[in-house]
Amino acid sequence: xxxxRNYMNxxxxxxxxxxxxxxxxxxxxxxxNKRTNRSSLLNSVSSRKDLLTSNTASAxxxxxxxxxxxxxxxxxxxxxxxxxxxxxxxxxAAAKESGDISEAVSAVKGxxxxxxxxxxxxxxxxxxxxxxxxxxxxxxxxxYASEMAKCGVKRNADGTLTVxxxxxxxxxxxxxxxxxxxxxxxxxxxxxxxxxxxxGAERNMEAQASNAYSSLFxxxxxxxxxxxxxx
Length: 231
Known about the structure:
This protein is mainly alpha-helical. It has a domain at 63-214. Helix content is 79%, strand content 3%. The chain has eight helices and two strands; from the N terminus they run αααααββααα. A two-stranded antiparallel ribbon has the order 1-2. Helix 1 runs antiparallel to helix 3 (102-125) and helix 1 (5-84) runs antiparallel to helix 8 (186-221). The radius of gyration is 36 Å and the shape is rod-shaped. It starts with a helix and ends in a 10-residue tail after the last helix. The relative contact order is 0.12. The model is unreliable at 222-231 (pLDDT under 50).
């Protein structure tokens, strides 16, 4: 049977239009799926970045806390070393010889300031170990509260110390030495615990650094290679 040319052309055109339409729809669906997948991936990346940013900020704050704790604890030990030195050139030997107690007074004030900062760091940390350190330090400061009061240093309810500078400056060298020096006084005991505080803070800093490093790969590596994640 002979097919008219017009009919054949019309039929072919119809088939071409249908095929073209199917192809366009397929391409459209593929493009839409790609956009959806790309959007989902970007959202996932954004979410992971937000989580990492939050975790990093938290880790940085914790690191800063322990850095400060270690610093203040070491300063407590440094001032304690000056105050408890019994050599011929010690603070109190010089004060009794010259009658000038200004350096001894300055050391007491420095010790108190660093001691208070260390207590604040321990309170902010709130871990079991740091709470124990704070409890022990508070116990010792309570035992020696009456002696420190003789030099114008008051123990507060929270364990921190407050200096009455006029009263401290008016204290004689012998009384200052008795209260703030010696191997069995408050300063020596506080320094011993400060040593433990500094060591604990350093361990926590190392642990935080290790956890932050692991977290980087936990958050990204779960979806494959870290670098492939962004491809």
